[in-house]
Design brief:
This is DUF2634 domain-containing protein. The protein is of the alpha+beta class. The protein has one domain: Nuclear Transport Factor 2, Chain: A (Roll). The chain contains 3 helices and 5 strands. Strand 4 and strand 5 form a beta hairpin. It is globular.
């Protein structure tokens, strides 16, 4: 897998030769998982079916943390090259979910913050 390499502020960055930097391997998969977890259904311009269906199910309600965690794991498992995913930390403060998910990709374990 190959994808654009993003900064910690989710912006594009340049490589040493001034070209748009690319990520490969486990880093690309981890970044794609973080994107998938943050994506709301109907938010992606070219693929309106991708994403976690927060608008349909969770907004205006207080779903159990287990329901939210299951949706996040499911979103991670839909990313190409992800073999397994497990939520390692999860917290909701003022209706904002944060935490980390551990993924298996290319025989490596990678921890992804969300």
């Amino acid at each position: 897998m190959r994808t654009l390499l993003l900064t910690s502020a989710w912006d594009l960055q340049l490589d040493a030769s001034g070209q748009i930097a690319m990520a490969e391997g486990p880093l690309a998969v981890a970044q794609s998982v973080a994107n998938a977890i943050r994506l709301f259904t109907r938010d992606a311009y070219f693929d309106q079916t991708s994403g976690v269906p927060h608008f349909d199910i969770e907004l205006g309600h207080r779903p159990s943390p287990e329901v939210v965690k299951e949706r996040l794991v499911r979103a991670a498992l839909e990313v190409q090259d992800v073999d397994a995913a497990t939520i390692t930390t999860f917290e909701v403060v003022d209706r904002v979910a944060t935490g980390s998910i551990e993924i298996q990709a290319f025989g490596e374990t990678v921890n992804v913050a969300f």
